[in-house]
Amino acid sequence: MEVINALGRRKSAVARVYLSTGKGTITINGRTLEDYFKEDTLRYIVNQPLEVTGTQANFDITVTLDGGGIKGQAEALRLGISRALCKVDAEAYRPVLKANGFLTRDAREVERKKPGQPGARRRFQFSKR
Question: Which CATH number is correct for 4-99, 3.30.300.30, 3.30.230.10, 3.40.980.10, 3.40.50.300?
Answer without folding.
Answer: 3.30.230.10
